[in-house]
Amino acid sequence: MKKEVWAFIDSGNCSPAFNMALDEALLNWHSAGKIPPVIRFYGWQPATLSIGYFQKAEKEINLETVKELGLGFVRRPTGGRAVLHEHELTYSVIVTEEHPEMPKNVTEAYRVISEGILEGFRNLGFDAHFAVPKTEEERNALKEPRSSVCFDAPSWYELVVENRKVAGSAQTRQKGVILQHGSILLDLEDEKLFSLFRFSSDRVKERMMKNFKNKAVAINDLSDRTVTIEEAKQAFETGFAKGLNIELAPYTLSPEQLQEVQNLSKTKYETDEWNFMR
């Protein structure tokens, strides 16, 4: 049987506001039936701290340090906790809720989409598997996260290698469309990451950092060889194609589409009204 063809976009490194605006624009265009489902890869210029839609920026984030380190800052349209986008491959998946292969249940949709990420890790030679919280305590911890840091603990169906989280994802559903995007860590500077958050005391910060190192890991800390961004892109592009049983066809934005994204970037994701609304 002929496989369904999805669009594939590799945006390269873009500004934080442009990255979020393009994900939203793709959701809008797919909702309107203008484009097929999309797999998108991208990077960040400059390195950026993104926060989840519901996070309180000024309460949780050390904004002075973000500025001092020359990092970008943006609020995502998806939930979840803060992520430092630096040494990573970022992906997004845009697909209608009505797609025959997409479960209505949010958690199960995570599982289906994350099959592509799982296959990508396998392509790189890693024994990855899905995290499934087993105990009541673990499930409750997902509802009441102990820190503002995304990679502090795996959620349902996120990817773990050697019992540590290697990819973090967040999802939203708007206009009948699922947008899931996430980070696949190549390298991780945990001290830099933890300098970006507010803690009640240094003791709490140290404890959280120690805990974090036991729960999160980057690809290049898992093996003797170094995986480059290009190797990662190739592994996860073929991984998504296999995991979702689709074909990927390169897609280029038209000048009109590009202008629409730039307008959305300026009027929404670059504004303090959006980024500091909580």
Automatic annotation (TrEMBL):
Keywords annotated in UniProt: Acyltransferase, Ligase, Transferase
Biological process (GO), any one: protein lipoylation
EC numbers for this chain: 2.3.1.181
Pfam families: LplA-B_cat
Database matches in SUPFAM superfamilies: Class II aaRS and biotin synthetases
An example Gene Ontology molecular-function term: ligase activity
Site feature location: Lowers pKa of active site Cys: 165
Metabolic or biological pathway, per its Swiss-Prot or TrEMBL entry: Protein modification; protein lipoylation via endogenous pathway; protein N(6)-(lipoyl)lysine from octanoyl-[acyl-carrier-protein]
Active-site residues from the entry: 150 (acyl-thioester intermediate)
Quaternary assembly: Monomer.
PANTHER family in the cross-refs: OCTANOYL-[GCVH]:PROTEIN N-OCTANOYLTRANSFERASE, OCTANOYLTRANSFERASE LIPM-RELATED
Additional free-text comment from the UniProt record: In the reaction, the free carboxyl group of octanoic acid is attached via an amide linkage to the epsilon-amino group of a specific lysine residue of lipoyl domains of lipoate-dependent enzymes. The reaction proceeds via an octanoyl-thioester enzyme intermediate.
Summary of the function given for this chain in its UniProt record: Catalyzes the transfer of endogenously produced octanoic acid from octanoyl-acyl-carrier-protein onto the lipoyl domain of GcvH, an intermediate carrier during protein lipoylation.
UniProt name for this protein: Octanoyltransferase LipM
